[in-house]
Amino acid sequence: MQQLPGRNLLVIDNAQEQVAQKEVYEQLPGLPHWRVLLTTRLSLGGFDQMRLDTLDPEAARALFRTHYTGSYTAEELDNFLEEIGYHTLSIELLARLLDKLNGLLSLAELTEALQKKELDDPDLQERVWVQHAGEERAIFLHLMKAFELSRLEEKELWLLKQFVVLPVEPYPVEMLAEFLGEKPLALNKLLNGLASKGWLTQFEDKRFAIHRLIRQVVEYQLQPVYTDLEALVEAMIGKMGQDAYTNPITDNFPWVRFAEALASHLQKEGHERVAELQNNLSVVYRNLGEYARARDLLEAALQSDLENFGPGHPTVSIRQSNLATVYSDLGEYARARDLLEAALQSAMKNFGPDHPTVAVSHNNLAHVFVAKEEWGEAKMHFLKAFSIAQKALGESHPNTKLFLKWLNFAENKMG
Q: Which of 5, 48, 209, 412 has the fewest beta carbons closer than 10 A?
């Protein structure tokens, strides 16, 4: 090849690490007659790098129009391009997919499928002609082939699993280290490695992110479960934790989107720590006034705890009380009362009739009767709550004072 005259170009597609190794690199043809062009997702030494991951908006629109001639609005196209992050390969593949579907799927519907992570839906697995691949391949299978996981180390795979369940946005190393319980320097090295291999994007401000389409491919292949995400679950349980005496509820709010993403991913897992996350997150949602979401989380947590611990367990009692409070917020007083009566009986059985936990159960049940304006029943339970707290905690304890306040309120309502 070195002896060929003229100006020649050698293209090595999907180049791997071997190309940069000395024994291979020195055999590549060079000047004056040759130039070498590599396509790769790796960061290889000895070559000038030209990043082609994404296109600017106008170039992305032009590429899409090249491969799809159906009807759509400018807004629909921009929403689609934003959803896939202007990723060059994805634009071509998905535009060709739409063209092959002959109007059976609109651009807006395809965008919705991407948002719902339905790219692997068998109904979307049309054969798509990919010009540079030289053959027909199903869209999702092509993406999985493009992003081959087998070359990654176990720790790298573990880290990708964390990106699968977190919201798609750039993360500073320090935040990820806090979430995952890792040392920042060691984690930074791992992140740099994944970025150099094309799995993550590293921004100028040193934050790291995973592309939406890569995220779907990784999720489909790795399918993270609780045991992969234990550190992240514990971090989010802490971020959603409540303590009226040490931290205000506003401390929880910045972390809700992370906890929600994790809880949504693990919603079908019945592990007791997932239930704890669901419980803590529901309390925050209740404080935000999002009662329906709080209810759904607590119902899932209660079901898990019933299966894990059985009825009558203290943890089950806590879930029943919290869920009853949300039912009261939603005006479902009968359901709230049933749960609170069960929680009260459980607390009395587990702790005895004079325990502070029993006082809290009486107080919670009393508030259902307040909402129904049944003041006699409310007074009875507030009185029991106050009496127990006064004896067990003392006159100056915040709970004792609170129960007395509500007792006086109920007595005033009775006239």
A: 48
